[in-house]
Write a structure and sequence with these properties.
By secondary structure, the protein is mainly α. The protein has twelve helices and no strands. It has a domain at 152-258.
């Protein structure tokens, strides 16, 4: 029996091209200019890197509420603690059950699509196992990427904030807590948002003071600079001495560490560039140079 020309890959490709053409026709008249795009990029760097995913999880909670309530009773404590720590590092205020529900839904969708293609003999059966593990790995990798980006943004913004705190305290003679409040209430960014959350949490009755809040966040995110800032706040709170000079020392130490990290990152980038250069330039060049000798050797041995 002759096979039909309209098989599954051709139909899928035609549907994909149609969807892409429709999306391009809808988006192209509203495309931003170069100045608007650069302005958007600068605003995106300053703004929080984790609040946008948090809003996305909040919208997904309306759809995944039923399996989330089931997992709330049956999710192991160890998995709940691990996911809660990862979500806290990423700055996402979603419950762990919602993340597990999303991973399960993604896994079911990938598995159904893969099984359909396997039954149509378009994919090998071994890819079904890969579809089963791709969903949880994709969700976990995305959360780890958001957490790493948030940590890097906070570390980049902290030296400037600590410098401004030292200037506020040195010029006005205010306490460390007041200097932090004056700075973070005027500045936007992930580090300022984190410090505002610590200030709000420490202002509630029966909660730990600001220095302990900062130490907890430092252990949670793995940022030693917050622990140094907590030590300065503790000195001011317990001894009542001026901390303008320690704040300046902390800022200088943070800038020195940031400079060392940038230099190390540049050296790693230079080393990483050697592999594509060797594979894409040197190897073809060597093959072209040695081709006559290799052709003669092959002729002689044959």
């Amino acid at each position: 029996m002759p096979t039909l020309p309209w098989d599954l890959p051709i139909l899928a490709g035609a549907a994909g091209l149609a969807v892409a053409a429709a999306a391009l026709a809808a988006v192209w008249p509203h495309r931003p200019t170069a100045e608007e795009w650069l302005r958007f990029r600068s605003m995106r760097r300053v703004s929080s890197a984790a609040t946008r995913p948090g809003r996305g999880w909040a919208r997904a909670g309306r759809v995944l509420g039923i399996p989330g309530r089931y997992l709330q009773r049956h999710l192991p404590i160890s998995a709940r603690v691990t996911l809660s720590g990862l979500l806290a590092r990423a700055g996402i205020g979603a419950p762990p059950e919602l993340v597990v529900s999303y991973a399960i839904l993604l896994t079911v969708g990938l598995t159904v699509a893969t099984v359909t293609l396997v039954l149509a003999e378009q994919l090998p059966p071994g890819l079904v196992f890969m579809a089963l593990v791709a969903g949880p790995l994709a969700v976990g990798g995305r959360l780890m990427q958001i957490a790493s980006r948030r940590r890097r943004v906070i570390e980049d913004q902290l030296p400037i904030l600590v410098d401004l705190m030292a200037l506020e305290q040195g010029g006005g003679g205010v306490g460390a807590r007041t200097a932090i409040e004056l700075v973070v209430n005027r500045v936007e960014g992930e580090a300022a948002l984190l410090l505002r959350e610590c200030l709000t949490a420490s202002a509630t009755a029966g909660t730990p003071p600001l220095d302990r809040q900062l130490e907890t966040v430092s252990d949670q995110l793995g940022i030693p600079a917050l622990a140094a800032l907590a030590a300065v706040v503790r000195i001011q709170r317990e001894e009542g001495v001026s901390t303008a000079s320690p704040l300046g020392q902390v800022a200088r130490g943070l800038r020195d560490r940031q400079r060392d990290e940038l230099m190390a990152r540049g050296r790693r980038a230079l080393v990483a560039m050697l592999l594509p250069v060797a594979l894409c330039i040197l190897l073809p060049f060597v093959i072209i140079i040695l081709y006559p000798a290799l052709a003669r050797l092959s002729t002689a041995f044959s």
